[in-house]
Amino acid sequence: MNQPAQRFRSFLWRCLNGLESRAGDGLLLALAAVLLWSGNFIAAKAVADTVPAMALAFWRWSFAALIAILFAWRHLRQDWPVLVRHWRMVTLLAFLGNACYSALIYVGLQTTSAITVMLENAILPAAIAVLCYLVHGERMRPVQIWGLGFSLAGAVWIIVRGDLDQLTALTLARGDFLVIGGVVAYAAYTVLLSRAPPVHSASLIAATFAAAAVLLVPFFLGELILGAPTHWPVEGWLAIVYIAVFPSLVCFSLFNAAIRKIGANRAGIMLSFLPVAGAGLAFVLLGERLTGAHMVGGTLVLGGVLLAQRRTGR
After folding, report:
1. Helix axes 3-22, 251-269, angle to 10 degrees
2. Is the whole model's pTM more than 0.85, yes or no?
3. CB atoms within 10 A of CB 200
4. SS3 of 26, please?
5. Are 121 and 274 in contact (CB under 8 A)?
6. Which residues of 24-52 are buried (b: 16+ CB within 10 A; e: fewer)?
7. DSSP of 167-230
8. CA 206 to CA 213: how far, in whole Å?
């Protein structure tokens, strides 16, 4: 590898490691990940009419894997025997957190708005809490339960646009069910991450990204056989590159580090910010309407997150 490439790789990893070391309790890591994550939905929605869903997912993880392997090559060589020994867990994590989640989200975005998809992602903290209890026996503190309740109430308030009567007439389209399925898959990934093989975080990210790309090959080819378009505007490729770098490589690095520092439950509650950050971006970049219900719901979400992160007496 040439000298400029080595220096650039070292610089990026120093930036990520610096963020991790300065955010001692992991909350800033989780928040930064959420802000980057919201851009995934905006970029994917912007190209939903021109880039097929499976193609977007496949090329996202293919490009992200190439970049991650470049940066993690030294660690990958050291950790390869461990990764091979634990290939089943690596594959499961790649399926749940990368391939399944992104594919279902992108298919859902073809029939529903970016704001709706992000609001449906607001159930992530609740799903993570339930799975943490079922898998690890990890209970939430009362203050966390109250905070989670406020956050969910805020998300529901936004979904029904401030009119609770809409709950009786609320209908879910096929895309909504796919998105919710993807959310449950990512919650399972978050909880199972504690059982990941004992390797460097860069090695795990590179391995799961590459495995996700491989898992998506049959679906990508099936989409092509069914006649999906293969020629996209340059904006489509720019969206893929953006998603591969920021909501993938950088976001997963930050969020995985947050889980290691503060646990899946506390990191998961920070995901309640996703609808708030995403709704703002959708309003600015996609022209989607921002209403008073978004403001009220966003305030409830913010209050819930702050309450859930309060520490009780030591």
Report:
1. 10
2. no
3. 15
4. coil
5. yes
6. eebbbbbbbbbbbbbbbbbbbbbbbeebb
7. GGG----HHHHHHHHHHHHHHHHHHHGGGS-SS-HHHHHHHHHHHHHHHHHHHHHHHHHTT---
8. 11
Query: Would you state the structure tokens that stand for residue 62, as one six-digit string?
Result: 């293919």
Mean pLDDT of 109-138: 81
Rounded Cα–Cα distance for residues 268 and 234 (Å):
35
More confident residue, 195 or 129: 195
Q: Report the distance separating Cα 297 and Cα 152, nearest Å.
A: 9
The residue whose two tokens read 């390869």 is 80
Question: For 63-73, what is each residue's pLDDT tens digit?
Answer: 999 999 999 99
Residue 156 token pair: 């529901």
Query: What is the biggest distance separating any 2 CA atoms in the chain, rounded to whole angstroms?
Result: 63
Determine the Cα–Cα distance for residues 273 and 266; give it in Å rounded to an integer: 13
C-beta of residue 232 within 8 angstroms of C-beta of residue 48: no
Q: Would residue 162 be called left, alpha or beta, if left means φ above 0 and alpha means ψ between -120 and 50 degrees?
A: left
Residue 36 near residue 244 (C-beta atoms within 8 A): no
φ, ψ of residue 234 in degrees (nearest 5): -60, -30
- Of the pLDDT bands very low, low, confident and very high (cuts 50, 70, 90), residue 10 is low
Beta-carbon contacts of residue 246 (< 8 Å; ≥ 6 apart) = 36, 39
Q: Are 304 and 234 in contact (CB under 8 A)?
A: no
